[in-house]
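User: Please predict the structure of the protein below. I'd like the answer in structure-token form so I can feed it into my own downstream comparison script.

Assistant: Understood. Taking the following sequence of 408 residues as input:
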Amino acid sequence: MTSVIEAQSGIANVGVKAKNVQADSTLTNAEKMTRLDALTLEAKGFKDAIAIHDAANRLMGGAEAAPEAKSVEHVETRGFARQVIDSAAYKSMIAGSRFAQIDVKAAATIDEGIIPAFSGGAGLAGQLNTPQFLPGIVPLKFQPLTVADLLAQGTTASTSVSYVIEGAFQDLTGTVSEKGAIPQLDLTLTRRQDNVSKIANIAKPTVEMFQDAEQFHAYLQNRMVFGLQRKEEQQLLNGTGTTPDLQGLLNRSGLAPAIVTAAGLTAVKIMEGIFNQITALRSVSFVEPDAILINPVDWQTIRLGKDTAGQYFAGGPFTGAYGNAGPSNVSSIWGIKTVITTAIAQGTAFVGGFQECAQIFRRNGIVLDMTNANNNDFETDLITLKAEERLALAVYRPAGFGRVTLTA
């Protein structure tokens, strides 16, 4: 059953998705209404889960009921790490319990670092002054995560997802004369099964760092959870399908035939190759593409493409195309949303109907376990943290996706 925390987090996520849909200029009003209707149903499911917990708490002795979310816009939400810090399990851990588990929906040993020695000299008074300590941790920068947001979302209570797809359709339907033989129509159905895979990591902060709630908050928010999401993104695209990997989109059988651009990489050749794949998906797979993935280096080639007069196709650095009014921050190719990401290798573009043709099924959200009874953690004042999630990727229409190979 969905927890209250998971439901509240889910409502907040629905609100973010609704805002993104409203702001997406590549969608028609009809497409926006369709997606907003689906998000409304999703939000209702989370609200119903909160209501169930509320009723159960009253029946079990009048425990304080979970607050009902009145609307997506007014829900007060907490981040992943803040939910951990405020939880009873975290407080129990601080008080001295040996093991606790926190379920939040939504490795080297780590310490707080060593203050470097001051290298002073004659006439320098640095050793007499107290340094100013700045709060928080300056994190490394990584590629923003995008692929999961392109796909339809779902949940599962099983260890696998099984579904039937139509593998072939032989349509011999025709006109028939009196007493003539009626042509036969043949269908070939195939059952596909995608297993739920686990993505996990562990970390070992010191007790001192664990007791510093703000440092712990930043650490959880920016590293353990983000590590799971980074691996998830890689698996959704490039997973091999060999246990325990997911089978990613790029490694599915039945993809639309790849389009290979003409030799000599130019903006025009890349854009023409992408349009050829768009046309193939529309005319052969009968799928309307909703997104294009492309590497930043290949996007640069497109963005800096010029015509014979030296004009940028997509507009200059300050104005729209050919000096026309309007912004020059183009974010689509042929009117289709374009996602610029290093998750796709340089030299390849990937076109598909992501929402229609594939879906992520989550077995659970992110679960955090923590204990100081692992190995010699108790003796060395360490705490072992483990974060994990489980999910499956179902691809209903592999032919709704296709590569574009960019030939140098």
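That's the full token string. The mean pLDDT is 80.
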